[in-house]
Amino acid sequence: REPAIVQRVGQNQFSVRFIPKENGPHLIDVVEEGSNTPVSGSPFRVLVGDSACGDPGMVYAYGDGLTEGFVGVKNRFFVNTANAGSGALNVTVDGPSKAQ
Prior knowledge:
Number of helices: 0
Strand content: 25-35%
Strand order of the largest sheet: 1-2
């Protein structure tokens, strides 16, 4: 299950936004508010990650800051997404739990 934002856009019409965690086919179950009765046509099939979406395999990083880092100075590296298409980029920097 993924959290979703549901907004009314008209009488018996709603907009649903969610961020799937993986590409591929998904089923979206829609039920009437206050019950578990599916709306007509539910579950809805959607395909996430068609050719128009980004390709994370085309993202790469480079630079000295990826192999060593120093406290108190800028440690640089670059993330190239030029050929990856559209999508969000999240970067996490982890290090050893104890300074050495």
